Amino acid sequence: MGLESVMFGRKLKNPMILASGILGMTRASLEAACENGCGAVTAKSLTLEPRKGHEGPNIVEVEDGLLNAMGYPNPGIVAGLKEFGGWKRSEALIISIVGKNKEEFAELAEKVDAAQKTLGATAIEAVMSCPHTPGYGTMAGQGAPECVASITSAIKKKTELPLIIKLSPSVPGEGKAAKAAEDAGADAINMGNSLGPGMVIDIHRKRPFLGFGVGGMSGPAIKPIVIRCVYDVYRSVKIPIIGTGGINSGRDAIEMMMAGATWVSAGSTAYYRGPEAFGQICREMEAWMKSNGVSKLKGMIGAAHD
Amino acid sequence: MIKIHTNVVKKVSEENYRVKTIEVEHALEEALPGQFLMVWMPGVGERPMSIGNGYPLTMSVANVGKVSAAMTALRPGDMISYRGPFGKPFAVPKDAKRILVIGGGYGVVPLYFLAKRAKENDIGAVAVLGARAAKDIIYEKQLFAVCDEVFITTDDGSRGKKGTVMAEAEMLIRSKKFDCAYACGPEMMMKAVAQLCRQHGMPCQVSLERYMKCGMGVCGSCVVDGKTVCRDGPVFSGEEALAMGEFGKAHRDATGVLHER
What is the pTM of this model? Predict the structure, then answer.
């Protein structure tokens, strides 16, 4: 009985993963997320060079969601790997990388691989789905299946580490992109990122509120879209799926698993419920399973499919 | 849901050669001493700002960057937009009779708000106000209006006692006449106050400052030892702060790179 899961051969105390970009700027904050109940944590996405990110405001609350445009603030791959390195906890560490093209992704993966001896990471996550940073993600057309395939195979050539490809819920044809990633050697799909981009205009100042103008939407409002994406991807690939988007309760997490997710990942919930949210969601999952006679996660994964 | 407030600037007054106080036509009644606002200057950016008073809403700004320069250019009648209050406020122990506030530089702003609230609740306050030189002192008049006593120190001796706030602070902490001490200002000063309070068994609280991006405990830019300054803080107990490896030792820049002092 319980929430135990396995990720690429590593035992996890639960299937809850801290999403990249949330509280993951430092090693200490990743450790705090583990203490707060995450079974795995994703470090802040790393680029080749340090980035300050977009000018503020960087985030704004909307009805049932958050709209953010951080712009990938990060210390760069070299300082980042030093910050997160030497991971010894039982929770899994996922290193997230973002590049402008397959060459950058390959170089980043090579650097992670070279550091792995002391790094202690369980997987690399390559993000091709940020909706609000020029030159990256969907703003650079990285969501297209052929682009996903070429980046995936470029990374796979440079690393032995399991590779997770993080796809956007904003680009039609998630199933095709996921299949392209699988065929190119991806070990898992992270289905979900912030949705959009969207915009908030302040009517008093008659201007877009976010410093970057547009931002990606997260939080409870986007959950039905991500559920549908995960459902489609589950039908398209055999590799496991991380479901990301709008998970704010144990029921949300179970719904995501029934759509086809092996693991779930959350971020905005840290705003709604505080940093303790991750453990609380896991306890809610456990309570639901108990009262519904479900003893293992396995019985729920993809349960919504015929 | 977090609201974006837009209100009219009522008054702008000069505190010293580079600090201005902005009073807004808004009674932000839920604001508590120690909390902050995220002030949005459209087309320029957004910065966290200490609250100097809740009603009328008041903040003080030093002209040090793009956003603060735009703020110091505000005139009565202009609009100002902000969100908040955010963060954990100063906590005053139940049945407290007397508190000690120790402010260095701009750190005095939230401490004035705290002393003012204390006075409204019949709690006495004594202040130590430190600055580099006489010309850097701010909030002196305000503090005199709400505190039983105000001690002034300057690094160069151009006003009050020469030196840092520590000599006066030590004398007052040793007197054991206070239920709690509150420090806000340069981190080394706050660390010294926290250590002194630990030595003398006096509860103490400090207010940390870090590079901040989201203000709501999500992005992690402002973390110190895994705690977010924007949501877990900015106010921490002296003991919590002393347990932090980075307290008084290091801070992170906008990219997250750690810089040792």
Answer: 0.95
Task: Note whether A59 contacts B1, CB cutoff 8 Å.
Answer: no
Cis peptide before A197 (omega within 30 of 0): yes
Give me the residue spans of the domains in chain B: 5-86, 98-260
Residues of chain B falling short of pLDDT 50: none
| pLDDT above 70 (res A1) | no
Question: How far apart, in whole angstroms, are the C-alpha atoms of residue B111 and residue A156?
Answer: 56
Return the pLDDT at A140: 87
Q: How much is the average pLDDT of A196-203?
A: 96
Please report residues of B whose CB lies closer than 8 A to that of A32: 226-227
How far, in Å, are B90, B91, B115, B146 from residue B32 at the CA level? 8, 10, 12, 16
Q: Do A271 and B217 touch (CB under 8 A)?
A: yes
Interchain pair A270, B217: CB under 8 A: yes
Please count the structural domains in chain A.
1
Residue A117 has pLDDT above 60, yes or no: yes
Cα separation, A133 vs A105, in Å, equals: 16
ipTM of predicted complex: 0.93
C-alpha R_g of chain B: 17
Number of Cβ within 10 Å of residue B120's Cβ equals: 9
Calculate mean pLDDT across residues A281-288: 98
Q: Radius of gyration of chain A from Cα atoms?
A: 18
Sign of the dihedral defined by the CA atoms of residues B227, B233, B234, B239, in that order: negative
Residues of A in contact with B40 (CB under 8 A): 56-57, 209
3-state secondary structure of B11: strand
Token pair, residue A22, equals: 């949330």
A130 carries an active-site annotation: yes
Does domain B98-260 correspond to CATH entry 3.40.50.80? yes
Q: For the domain B5-86, what is the CATH superfamily, name and number? A: Translation factors (2.40.30.10)
C-alpha to C-alpha distance for B133 and B105, rounded to whole angstroms: 10
State what percent of residues in chain A have pLDDT above 70: 100
**Distance between CA atoms of residues B231 and B87, nearest Å:** 5
Counting one residue from chain A and one from chain B, the pairs whose CB atoms sit within 8 A come to: 127
pLDDT single digits (tens) A217-254: 999 999 999 999 999 999 999 999 999 999 999 999 99
Q: Give the pairing of strands B19-24 and B5-14.
A: antiparallel
CB contact at 8 A, B149 and B141: no
